[in-house]
Amino acid sequence: MQLKAFSAALLSASVLLAGPALAEGFRGTAKLATPASTPLTVVVDGVEWKCDGDTCVGTSDRKAGLDSFMKECRKVSAAVGPLAGYASRGRELTDRNVATCNRLAAENRTDSQLAAK
Q1: Is there a contact between 39 and 4 (Cβ–Cβ < 8 Å)?
Q2: How many of the other CB atoms lie within 10 Å of CB of 98?
Q3: Mean pLDDT of 86-111
Q4: Predicted TM-score of the model (pTM)
């Protein structure tokens, strides 16, 4: 019986602690490989990304994330161009993973262009 009470208390505590984290929404940053010549705003899966110079900031009050960490990067790279860095939800991609992200985003752009023809 004590185990059930402890489990219920632990579950309640985790829900209470997770509530504010889920309410924060999404915030991500991307560093462009080539700075934008003019400010740019794009929406990627409900997250608004605003780019100025070499820095893009993505925010959404309602979304906790776009997808998996690498998919987020790929979608942003496909929308704004090659990235030099990517971070969201307290994590940052390594340089090697950013290169993979850019390569996969470029492949997706090419596949989309071929499908459109």
Answers
A1: no
A2: 22
A3: 91
A4: 0.72
